[in-house]
Amino acid sequence: MFRQSIRRFATAAESASTYNIKVGKVQGRVNGFVGGMRQIRPTFVSSRFYDVLTFAAIAVGNTPLIRLNRLSDETGCEIFGKAEFMNPGGSVKDRAALYVVKDAEEKGLIKPGGTVVEGTAGNTGIGLAHVCRSKGYKCVIYMPNTQSQGKIDLLRLLGAEVFPVPAVAFENPENYNHQAKRHAEKLENAVWTNQFDNTANRRAHIETTGPELWAQAGGVLDAFTCSTGTGGTLAGITRYLKEVSDGRTECWLADPPGSVLYSYIQSGGKLSERSGSSITEGIGQGRVTDNLKQEINLITDALHIPDEETIHMVYRLLDEEGLYMGASSALNVVAAYELAKKIGPGKTVATILCDGAYRYADRLFSKKWLREKGLDTAIPAHLERYAVLP
């Protein structure tokens, strides 16, 4: 039954998903940021479809696939990044945000005028704030106080009530996710959307991101890699690609310092104690979430990406590709680059450009911050001119 559902999305772009989200091929793929588009069997959405869906539902997804020209030329592979920073909330998390709210509506967990509560490192909250504004819900966000001020400010500008709380381990009852759950339980007509373990998150990527990626790649995709926070993006895309390719597409986890998932996969399922930290926000994990759990055995292998390589790629992407990417996107691109070198020339590799650098500029391009993190030496001399902030 599941395979039939997957095949439907692989072959019928005009079909709507279970949530009536249109899966189209309208964006095709692009040779670089300003290059010409290769259109792949374009489809068009009827005016009637626009009439029955909200702005949020129409705007989320169908992002272009961008060829990373310099890295592709260096490796002899075709390396692509899916431009999730072009979603209305600016990140891949818009997809999960839309699906967890739709899931709550379908299950009768929230009614008009209700409140959506979530624990998030930022981007899911921004997506939820957009969706809640569109649908008339209140939005309450709990987040670690380690997140950038830009994310906090944007959430408040979007009308969300924000509670930055101390960053503590998931096992601690004061973890931001547990506080979000308790907050929702105190309110009438409220739902905690539970992005980490609500598999509607994973489903968003089975039903939209995976089919889009496969169609844009023309049905030729040798490998996919991305990092994970909730697990939804990696798990959902992995599930779809493994099904539609009959297992031929390799799917690799990209993991930052401070996460246990690289060692978990390398050790065959042994969960180690979390230690260390990373400059990246919203990725890396100390446990296997319910979103990831169902697909963990489908993951081919894992790559550990040091912060030095991530920050270097932030600057390379800006200089060589004209792409102003955040650290998580840069980490994903490093992983795609390393994976391309592993599997050899002539192959096609894709990753997720999950968000831009706009919310992190005061850190990533600050000379003082880079020195404090010991990352200033990771930037080659010819790229130092982009570190324009004090």
Automatic annotation (TrEMBL):
It catalyses: O-acetyl-L-serine + hydrogen sulfide = L-cysteine + acetate; O-succinyl-L-serine + hydrogen sulfide = L-cysteine + succinate. Its main location: mitochondrion. Residues 59-355 form the Tryptophan synthase beta chain-like PALP domain. GO terms for cellular component: mitochondrion. GO terms for molecular function: cysteine synthase activity. The keyword Transferase applies. GO terms for biological process: cysteine biosynthetic process from serine. InterPro entries: Cys_Synth/Cystath_Beta-Synth, P-phosphate_BS, TrpB-like_PALP, TrpB-like_PALP_sf. Keywords: Amino-acid biosynthesis, Cysteine biosynthesis, Mitochondrion, Pyridoxal phosphate, Transferase, Transit peptide. Pathway: Amino-acid biosynthesis; L-cysteine biosynthesis; L-cysteine from L-serine: step 2/2. It is an enzyme of class 2 (transferase). The keyword Aminoacyl-tRNA synthetase does not apply. Its EC number is 2.5.1.47. Its cofactor is pyridoxal 5'-phosphate. It is found in: Mitochondrion. It holds the Pfam family PALP. Belongs to the cysteine synthase/cystathionine beta-synthase family. Catalyzes the conversion of O-succinyl-L-serine into cysteine, the last step in the cysteine biosynthesis pathway. Can also use O-acetyl-L-serine. This is Cysteine synthase 1. It comes from Sphaerosporella brunnea.
